[in-house]
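Justification of resources, computational component.

The compute hours requested in this renewal are based largely on the per-chain cost of generating structure records like the one below. Each record pairs the submitted sequence with a full structure-token output. That output is archived, and it is also reused by downstream analysis tasks.
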Amino acid sequence: MGQIQYKRLDTDCFNAYSLDSFVRHQTVTECWRKVDNKWALVPNPFVENWTIEQRRAIAEDIEQHMNHDQTGFGAYDGGRIVGFATVSHHIFGDTANYVELVCFQVSEEYRRRGIGRKLFTIVCEEALRLGADKLYISGHSSKESQDAYRALGCKHAEEINEILAEEEPFDIQLEYKL
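The structure output for this chain reads:
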């Protein structure tokens, strides 16, 4: 593993096949759920593992949106993308100017090396440039994912985007003050 380079995603460095070697694998044992109106960790064992078709569909979606209504950034080890994050250009919210962190992933073998933290910092700078004062995250409810978001300083969203919450009912709605 060499020196990680961070780049804004564009057609020179990202296409529908860019995620072919990306490893989105996570063994989940517990997830956060509301129980009696309080957050609790509950057993929910499953394995998340993107197929090549899922990786290509996600890459195609990123390619379609990048530099139109989203900005994306990638972490590269040589020519291979090992982490990526995208942020929406759409500002929403009544109590704050939110933009959504749409995608935020680090390939399994590159986790816990600061790559996610660096990508998050870059995305936050872009969100500020877009005019936001908070980043909105509809985050996976697994213990590991929520621990990662907490380590970055995210907290439960003060204002819930009902559309995003309905799209992924088990996600936890988070925010990060820029």
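The longest helix spans residues 115-129. The chain is about 25% helix and 40% strand.
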